Structure formats: C-alpha cells, structure tokens
Amino acid sequence: DGGRVISYRDGAMASVSVVEDADGVSRLRIDNRQQEGSSSSLLADARQALLPLLLHPAPRRALFLGLGTSVTAASAAQEVTLQVDAVELLPEVIAASAQFAQVAGDGTRAATANPRLHLMAADARRYVRSAEARYDLIVSDNFHPARSGSGALYTVEHFRAVHERLTESGVFCQWLPLHQLDLDTLRSIVQSFMAVYPNGAAMLATNSLDTPVLGLVARHDGSRFNLQQVRDRLGNHHLPQRLADFGLADDLAVLGSFIAGPQALARFAGDAPLNTDDRPVVAYRAPRLTYAPDSQPRERLLSLLQQLRVEPGEVVDAGSDILWVQRLTAYRAARDRFLAVGQHVHPVADPREMLRQVREPLLEVLHISPDFRPAYDPLLQLAYGLARSDAAGAQALLQALRQAQPSRPEAGHALTRLAVATP
Questions:
Q1: From start to end of 178-310, where are the E strands?
Q2: Are 23 and 41 in contact (CB under 8 A)?
Q3: Residue 417 is inside which H or E element, if any?
Q4: pLDDT averaged over 10-residue windows placed end to end, the chain, 423 residues
Q5: What is the C-alpha to C-alpha distance for residues 24 and 4, in angstroms, rounded to an integer?
Q6: Which of 33, 36, 81, 21 is nearest to 56 (CA)?
Q7: How far apart are alpha carbons 103 and 350 in whole angstroms?
Q8: Which of 17, 33, 166, 175 is most buried per CB count within 10 Å?
C-alpha cells in the first residue's frame, strides 16, 4: 500500500525494477525478487567502499565488481585522485542505478556524471581474466551466493585471476552477505580465498545484526596493514565526505573492524572443500539456506565471532606502539560485547523505554573500551531526546557518559547547554 514503481526494464537476462514504498524508500529488484540495495542503506553501502579504500596508502585506480545501486562504487569515486572502473552484468541495473544518485560532497548528483567513475556492462569473471590494467584496489560485491552463477565469483580460479589484476601493493576485498550465507558454505569460500591469499583477514562492514556483511581482505604481497599508513591516509585523504559520518573517524574505527586473522580463518575453514570451477560446491549448497533456513543472521554472526579472533600483531603492524595495540584489543572486545547485547534490544520510539533497554549494556561496553563510538553516540542522542521530558534523567546519563569517556567533550557540552536551558 502506498508504493509505486519508479522504473522498470526488461532485459535479455532479467527484469530490473526500482520500487518505492509508502515511506519513500526505493529498492532495486531483479525479477521482482532479489533486493539489490535500497536508498536507506547509504551508510552500509558506502562503508563497503571506504573501509578497503582507507586500507591502501595511496590508491590511484580501483575496480568494483558488481554495481547494484552504485552507491559503493560512487562513494569511492568521490576521491579526486582515484579512477574507478565498475563492472555490472546487467545493463538494466546500470540504468536503474541513476535512481539512487546521492548528493555528494562535491555536488555530483548521478554516478554517471562523475568522470572518474567508468561503468561497464560486462561479466565480472570474464573482465577480470581479460583486462590488461592493474588495480591498486579491487572490491567485489556481496553477491547472493544462491543466485544462479554467483557461486562462480567465489571460486579459487576467480580469486587467482583477481590476484593477477592487482598491483604489487594492491588490496582485494571480497564482501560476503552473511545474512544470505550459512556457515558451512562460508567455510568453503574462506578455504578458497585462503588458497590464493594465505595471509588474508576478515572484517565486518557494519555492526548490523540483521544484515551482517563479512569482508575477506588481503594484500597482493601478503604483507600486514601498517598503522602509520592508515593514520596518514585518514589525515590526507581526498574524499569530500566526513569520515566520522560513516563511523570511520580514526584508526581504531578502521582497524577495529577486523574480526579474524589468517590463523583463525584457517582454523574456521578446517577441512571444508574448495569451491572450484569443476567442483562448484557453493552453487549447490547455498540455495538450501534460502528455502530451508536453519538459523537467523544474528545467530550466525554471533557464532562466527565466538570462533574467530585476531592474534596480536597478526593483521596490523603497529610498530612499538604497545598502548595502541591494547586499545585496539579493548575496542574489538567492546564491539563483540556490543553485538552480543544488541540481540536483546527491541527498538522503540519512546526514548525513556529505549534508554531502559540500552543504558546499562552500552555503559558496560564503554567501560570495556571508551573509544567505542557506536556505544557512546546512541546514548548521547538518547540524552538529547530525554532532555525534553526528563532533564534530571538526561543530566544523569550525560554525567555517566562523561565518566565513561572523559576525553570526549560532547557530553560535557551537552551538560552545559542543559544547565543553561533548565530553570
């Protein structure tokens, strides 16, 4: 009710539509079934570009496999020093992506209007095998593994072809939709990735429990990511976006997204069969979860976090900065706790009821790591909302926030404003 079709195109391989619901949220659909992204997922889609982009010290050319709404590739192309190629199988998806154009920092409205973004209608596997260019960064979309043909994008042969397209210092990131993927199928994909990138690691795109997206990341030369390079990159990027708006304000937010190093990934994969062209186990196994789901996405994510870990110094070279390594370890522990307590939270509009659910759990997370902004920011916003009806309650919450993170000025500033506004 209240929805409408924004665009519709019949193609040789699929019908592609953009449908807007009564709340104004537009969704890209293929054959009226599979949702390929929406106008409400800007944060998650942009982070899938920004996270790998910030892991390379100075990227000049990037390749994105899969376009969808174009938000991911277009977010990367906002960097003025970066040329971006994006390959999409369905020409109709390229046309429909114009409906999801976001206003960027430089005023560019449509992905196709950005001269640094080159969109190509082509098969991703064929393009990777036939292209002559080498890329500093290759990002592969979180293809639905049960979709016909998608399993071929998770094979050893394809991962090897991607490796050949990278520059010597190049970074490859393969995003995986854990909300559409069972853990046994994931083990085969990890096994296949590690066969080509034995020093690979895993990271989370966001802290979502309902649509968790896992990234397998590696460098062409197998080296670790360097703390100082990430700091320099954060300080000298050429992106118009405020990285803080995407939860990537500092080195802890970027490097704290890792959940596993190569040792943990190897243990997790165990003896799972490789996914290869002549033994396409993903193509046969993945559809089962779609038609006979055995678990919820959040259950799979929390189970995965219990099985994975990052050994100190395994993924990030922090030099002799031992204190920062300790902060990073605490940050990751806080993230895991944040996700664990999040499964018991039921969002409501009433700030008092919401605060009743999250106040103590989020303060507990902040005591583990005062640097963990995903726990700090919601409490700060709840304090603002509560101030309208319960000034004393808002003041108590702000005091608790200031004690949990004394180095952040926001709670103190809010306390001062509240004191001035309260008779």
A1: 201-204, 213-219, 225-226, 258-260
A2: no
A3: helix 410-421
A4: 94 94 92 79 93 97 95 95 97 93 45 84 97 97 90 97 98 96 97 98 97 97 97 94 93 98 98 98 94 93 96 93 96 97 92 92 96 94 88 89 82 66 54
A5: 9
A6: 81
A7: 31
A8: 175
